[in-house]
Specification:
The structure holds two protein chains of two kinds. By secondary structure, chain A is mostly beta strands. Chain A has strands at residues 3-7, 10-12, 18-25, 34-39, 45-51, 58-60, 68-73, 78-83, 92-98, 110-114. Chain A is built from no helices and ten strands. In chain A, strands 2-10-9-4-5-6 form a six-stranded mixed beta sheet, with no helix packed on it. A four-stranded antiparallel beta sheet of chain A has the order 1-3-8-7, with no helix packed on it. In chain A, a hairpin with a 6-residue loop joins strand 5 and strand 6 (58-60). Chain B is mainly beta. Classes of the chains: A mainly beta, B mainly beta. At the A-B interface, strand 5 of A face strand 4 and strand 10 of B.
Chain lengths: 116, 107
């Protein structure tokens, strides 16, 4: 059974940093692109970033470029999102998702709240 | 960026009704469109991919179609468990973009 389990969310002050993790199991992690998708409270879905199987290609939505970094460790089946210079508008549930096109598998989400 | 417009933003229908949601892409995305169902407080669930392919395990009352840059999502006989918000998403180009969603409830 495919499982994606996010962790690392929480309350952070504007300008602060947070690192999200996503532990993957039930599939061969190293052969899939992986992505982060977020959803602000009461709002729609927004793709955030994607990373290729070997980590050598990474893509970001414009509002997070230069502040967020997606990475992965295929040895331990883990995906990460390092978030720096956080802003109030980054407040959202962050989902880890398998793939780069459509998303068949999603994690349960990790809430990030940016507030003073 | 490819903009996805979705209509209506909400609808109310009776059990057994046929429900139709449309999604329009701002440019050609071929068949690179998916539909998701999100129930309150839950994770989005993939229903349709490649515009018209039904995801495994999804009831056959759900369907999708394409006409140019216009995409249609249909629930053939609305059931109480279909109460949710439905999103379209294009994956022809980066950034991937979602429609704003259609909230469906029971009349």
């Amino acid at each position: 059974e495919v499982q994606l389990v996010e962790s690392g969310g929480g309350l952070v002050q504007p300008g602060g940093s947070l690192r999200l993790s996503c532990a993957a199991s039930g599939f061969t992690f190293s052969i899939y692109w992986m992505s982060w998708v977020r959803q602000a409270p009461g709002k729609g879905l927004e793709w955030v970033a994607s990373i290729k199987q070997d980590g050598n290609e990474k893509y970001y939505v414009d509002p997070v470029k230069g502040r967020f970094t997606i990475s992965r460790d295929n040895a331990i089946n883990s995906l990460y999102l390092q978030m720096n210079s956080l802003r109030a508008e980054d407040t959202a549930v962050y989902y880890c998702a398998r793939g780069v096109s459509y998303y068949r598998y999603w994690g349960q989400g990790s809430l990030v709240t940016v507030s003073s | 960026d490819i903009q996805m417009t979705q209509s209506p933003s909400s609808l109310s229908a009776s059990v057994g009704d046929r429900v139709t949601i449309t999604c329009q892409a701002s440019q050609d995305i071929s068949n690179y469109l998916s539909w998701y169902q999100q129930k309150p407080g839950k994770v989005p669930k993939l229903l349709i991919y490649d515009a018209s392919n039904l995801e495994t395990g999804v009831p056959s009352r759900f369907s999708g179609s394409r006409s140019g840059t216009d995409f249609t999502f249909t629930i053939n006989s609305l059931q109480p468990e279909d109460i949710a918000t439905y999103f379209c998403q294009q994956y022809a180009n980066l950034p991937r973009t979602f429609g704003p969603g259609t909230k469906v409830d029971i009349k």
